[in-house]
Amino acid sequence: MNHRFRPALAVVSAVAATFALAAAAPAFAGKTLDAVKARGTVKCGVTNGVAGFSAPDTQGNWSGLDVDTCRAIAAAVLGDGKKVDFVPLNSQQRFAALQAGEIDILARNTTWNLTRDASLGFNFTTINYYDGQGFLVPKKIKVTSAKQLKGATICTQSGTTNEKNVADWSKANNIPVKTVVFESFEASFKAFFAGRCQAFTTDASALAGLRNKEATNPDDYVILPELISKEPLAPAVRRGDDEWFAIVKWVPNALIEAEEAGITQENIDALKATSKDPAQQRLVGSGDDLGKLLGLDKDWSYRAIKAVGNYGEMFERNVGPKSVLKLPRGANNLWNKGGLLYALPVK
């Protein structure tokens, strides 16, 4: 080896060592994490009631995909998935509540788009449902395609992406429609089922829930096949607290990777005791300690998975075949099973 290259190599090695030490350094607790620990609960902004995502039963017990996301974060941070204060918010309230610090997480069927990402002071974390906007119509009007809605009145909620999406779709396809908007979600769908509009539009997952829950006879209604938008739904947090952002980003990723790795709510304890697979060990808490990089302990992901199961279990229970919605996995399947879900590596 030519000795004149040794000083340069020494500098490179020193820089590499510095980065390695930085990567292994524990994270500082952010102000939101400190506040959550002091309060003893995670404040999670949710819907007033959308089946499959966040809705209370008659006893006030919340369930849904977004609810489980919040419970997983509470389990990772506080050791108990039940330590969540669910704050019901309508579409107009949700962003102001997060901006004002009234909630720690917004997990409320909220679409991640450029305008919201760049202008509201939020960071979106991890997409937990790939949706798209569709139309619900009564079978009696004999419409089988959105292309047949020319001149139709369409009910929807104001202050959502749904209203703008209909306007864009109408203009792009030269299908004039009359949009009737309502301030609340409940008012908008009740007007539709009362016959005020010929169609109702919102995310296709919500349409399935409304048809099953609100219609006197669900078989009298059909969801048209076309989707007119992309609606990637994701939790959001306030900007300015990178430590909390990291936690709310990595907990859902751990749930997705748990499904990839074959870890379930039922087998996680056995895998914690016996698994020799490094990927499984990191998730069940018997391998590398990644929690210190998040300001958490080694069992953060174990507790999250134990509380709600992996992503596939959450999906089936809340919106999939085992739920009242009975939605197919579709785009929400794992990337190696024909879907779009691809967990960032927990390593």
Describe the 3D structure.
The chain has 13 helices and 14 strands. It has about 350 residues and is an alpha/beta fold. It folds into two domains: about 30-130 and about 235-335, D-Maltodextrin-Binding Protein, domain 2; about 135-230, Periplasmic binding protein-like II (D-Maltodextrin-Binding Protein, domain 2, 3-Layer(aba) Sandwich), CATH 3.40.190.10. The strands form five sheets. A five-stranded mixed sheet has the order 10-9-11-8-12, with helices on both faces. α3 packs across α9 (about 240-260) and α9 (about 240-260) crosses α12 (about 300-310). The two termini are about 35 Å apart.
Quaternary structure annotation? single chain
Please tally the helical runs, counting DSSP H or I stretches of 4 or more residues: 13
CATH-assigned fold name of the largest domain:
D-Maltodextrin-Binding Protein, domain 2
Percentage of residues assigned to helices: 40-55%
Whole-number total of structural domains = 2
Work out the radius of gyration: 23 Å
Residue share in β-strands: 5-15%
Helix-strand makeup class: alpha/beta
Organism: Variovorax robiniae
Domain Solute-binding protein family 3/N-terminal: 41-271
Protein name: Amino acid ABC transporter substrate-binding protein
Family: Belongs to the bacterial solute-binding protein 3 family.
Short account of what is shown:
The protein has 347 residues and is α/β, with parallel strands linked by helices.
Q: Would you spell out the secondary-structure blueprint of this structure?
A:
Layout: H1 6-24, H2 31-39, E1 42-46, E2 55-56, E3 62-63, H3 65-78, E4 84-88, H4 91-99, E5 105-106, H5 114-119, E6 122-124, E7 129-131, E8 133-138, E9 153-157, H6 161-173, E10 178-182, H7 185-193, E11 199-203, H8 204-213, E12 221-223, E13 231-233, E14 236-238, H9 242-260, H10 268-274, H11 278-284, H12 300-308, H13 311-318
Helix pairs in contact: 3-9, 3-12, 9-12
